[in-house]
Automatic annotation (TrEMBL):
Native organism: Nitratireductor mangrovi
Highest rank taxon of the organism: Bacteria
GO biological process: lipid A biosynthetic process
Record's protein name: Lipid A biosynthesis N-terminal domain-containing protein
InterPro entries with a match to the protein in the record: Lipid_A_biosynth_N, UCP028440_lipidA_biosyn
Length: 101
């Protein structure tokens, strides 16, 4: 139990700085996209992906991308970089559709 306590302290307390705070904020944005999608689907009684999902994805993904660059994690950088392209493309398509309507 003492080893676990030491590990938790080292990971969550000793390493805590502004970058870790940014990472937690980014993860919060990223999590909110699923909460928004879930609530919209429950209200519609069918699977729905609201525009807010893509904005939370873009916000959280951008912050996580910055965090990943700071941490110099190539897997995390590649994953978030690809995700950003997808989020921007979906928002672009939604905007285009609304302009045409």
């Amino acid at each position: 139990m003492h080893d676990l306590t030491n590990w938790l302290h080292a990971v969550f307390i000793e390493q805590f700085d502004a970058w870790v705070l940014l990472g937690f904020c980014a993860q919060g944005f990223f999590t909110m996209r699923f909460v928004v999608q879930w609530i919209a689907s429950e209200r519609a009684k069918r699977s729905v992906v609201p525009v807010a999902f893509w904005f939370f994805s873009l916000g959280g993904g951008s912050l996580l991308f910055i965090y990943a660059i700071h941490r110099q994690d190539p897997v995390f950088i590649a994953g978030q970089g690809l995700g950003l392209f997808i989020y921007i493309r979906n928002l672009w398509l939604i905007g285009k559709e609304r302009l045409e309507a």
